[in-house]
Structures are given as C-alpha cells and as structure tokens.
Amino acid sequence: MWLEGLVAWSWSLDGLRDCIATGIQSVRDCDSTAVVTVVCLLVMFVWYCYHVGREQPRPHVSVNSLLQGVDANGLQNGSMYCQSPECMRCMHHDGLNQKLYHNLQEYAKRYSWSGMGRIHKGIRDQGRYLSSQPSIQKPEVFFLPDLPTTPYFSRDAQKHDVELLERNFQAILCEFETLYKAFSNCSLPQGWKVNSTPSGEWFTFDFVNQGVCVPRNCRKCPRTYRLLGSLRTCIGNNVFGNACISVLSPGTVITEHYGPTNIRIRCHLGLKTPNGCELVVGGEPQCWAEGRCLLFDDSFLHTAFHEGSAEDGPRAVFMVDLWHPNVAAAERQALDFIFAPGR
C-alpha cells in the first residue's frame, strides 16, 4: 500500500512537508510502515537534489552569427563571430546536422512525425544541399528543400500582412520620425544599433531580434508593436525572425551577403525612400517606394546602398520577417521548436 501511495504522491513542497510531518508523528507512534515510507522519501529527495545540482544551466546561445555573414576580421554588418561551440553557424556541418536532428526527434516525440518529411529530408542532406547550391543562393544555416525559389516575391505571397502593413504606414512613419529626432541630440540614441559597413552608416532599431522581443524598444513604438501582433505570418518564435527599423545614411553600402535560411520572406515597408537607393537581390535591382512593401528572399546574395546626397536624407524601411508561403503550418510549428532562441 505504501508503494501505491508513493507513486500517487504529488511532488510539491507542501506535499513533502505534510508527508514528513505525518511520518514523524507516526514514528512517535511507533508505526514501522511509516518509518520505511519516510526513509524512502528522504532518500529519493536527496537523490533528486543531487541530480538537479549536477545539471548545468543551458546557456543562452548568441545567434548574432546566425543572421549575418562574417568577414576575415570576424565582423560583418555589425555582428561579431560568437565563437561559441554551441552556435549553429560555428559548428561543422556534421555537428550542426546532429544538433538539428536531435531537436527534430525531440519535437516528434512530443508531438508527431506527421508532416515532417521535408524537414527530415532537409536535415539529413543539409551538407549536400548547402554545398551544391548555386552561388547566387546559399543560405548559411538551414535550407528547406522543395521550396519555390525566386529572389523577389509578389505582394500576393503574403497579401493579408502586406495590406495590413501598408494601411498602417502613417502610424509607423510617425513613430519612426519621433525616434529619429533623437539623433539631433546624440550620435547614437538609446535603442539603436550601429552596423559595420564598408562606407556610410547603417542603423537599426530592433523590436524583435533573432526571435527575442526587445521590450524597451517596443514600448517606445506601441502602435508598431501592436501591429506586429496582428500579422498572421510574422516569424517571432525562432532565431530566423526579426522586426526592426533599418536606416541607411547617404553614401552607405551594405556588403553583399547571404541570409541564414530560405524558410522566410523578408518584407521591407518603405518609410523614407529618396532617390539613389537600391536593393539588389540575386543580381536583380529594385527600388523601395514609400508606403509600399517589397518582399524578397534574403538567402540569395543581396546588398543595398544609398547613393543620394546629404540633402536627400536617410533611407528608412520597416523590416519584418514573414514565413515563406509554401512552408506548411505543421512545418512552421516544428521549425519554431527546432530553432527556438537558446536551443
């Protein structure tokens, strides 16, 4: 009977306290069964504490290097090579594939293998996919096979979210202009990041950075933040998801680079788009337009530049990462799990 009671017992501190108190009272009453119960509980409690104490806390892995290329000096577009053995980009492909496959297995045990065929195929043959991709498209971390490939996407690819962003253009622009006024008081106001470029200046103001919300920045732009929550296809729960305001000063060139994956579409809503500004993806140039969204696959080799004069002012866009329309709902859930921040 005491074994059945032990199995059914709730592992709560209140339960432990009450059980021990009862056991002590029973010892006083010379109940031999209770004595055995108390001893067993104490032994199991000591074992549990020892087991928990041995576990090392999981470090939060920096994923800056997942999202930007790295040059010979360890810097590219403002991101430092993290040098962590846990970082997905720093790993050799074999180590990365093992890590991803372990995460996929863990997900399938908790949920289901149903709909995981393409992700399983991608992880199994990831090294071959990345090495055999044409130089025009080389996602640096994860390639999901059998997705339609094109440098730019039409607005209909994520029609609901595109229309929602464009309807709220004035609200986003107003909050950006309030933020940007702070540059008149100091060179780099709080909340902004400066990114390294061959020439000029490139600033970003993050709302979601590599799947992690930035609360202080979101509070400064409440309407923009609420809008993010209304988007149906925004990537917000894995390391491939970002949302920010991106600003290029006149004379700025961003080094050509590849994004980390082909599972997303990067969306730019033009806020300030002076003449002389271009985005080039896969060798195809496009220009931004104020109040309009431009959708592209950043796993293609891409660059951006602002060749306007100082009088033209900065180029500013609101950038948000959306799911590729051909990634199924079950795959999105699994990829959120596999690539969760810090995993």
TrEMBL record:
<dbReference type="GO" id="GO:0016020">
    <property type="term" value="C:membrane"/>
</dbReference>
<dbReference type="GO" id="GO:0051213">
    <property type="term" value="F:dioxygenase activity"/>
</dbReference>
<dbReference type="InterPro" id="IPR027443">
    <property type="entry name" value="IPNS-like_sf"/>
</dbReference>
<comment type="similarity">
    <text>Belongs to the aspartyl/asparaginyl beta-hydroxylase family.</text>
</comment>
<dbReference type="InterPro" id="IPR007803">
    <property type="entry name" value="Asp/Arg/Pro-Hydrxlase"/>
</dbReference>
<feature type="domain" description="Aspartyl/asparaginy/proline hydroxylase">
    <location>
        <begin position="166"/>
        <end position="325"/>
    </location>
</feature>
<dbReference type="Pfam" id="PF05118">
    <property type="entry name" value="Asp_Arg_Hydrox"/>
</dbReference>
<dbReference type="InterPro" id="IPR051821">
    <property type="entry name" value="Asp/Asn_beta-hydroxylase"/>
</dbReference>
<keyword id="KW-1133">Transmembrane helix</keyword>
<keyword id="KW-0735">Signal-anchor</keyword>
<keyword id="KW-0472">Membrane</keyword>
<keyword id="KW-0560">Oxidoreductase</keyword>
<comment type="function">
    <text>May function as 2-oxoglutarate-dependent dioxygenase.</text>
</comment>
<keyword id="KW-0812">Transmembrane</keyword>
<keyword id="KW-0223">Dioxygenase</keyword>
<protein>
    <recommendedName>
        <fullName>Aspartate beta-hydroxylase domain-containing protein 2</fullName>
    </recommendedName>
</protein>
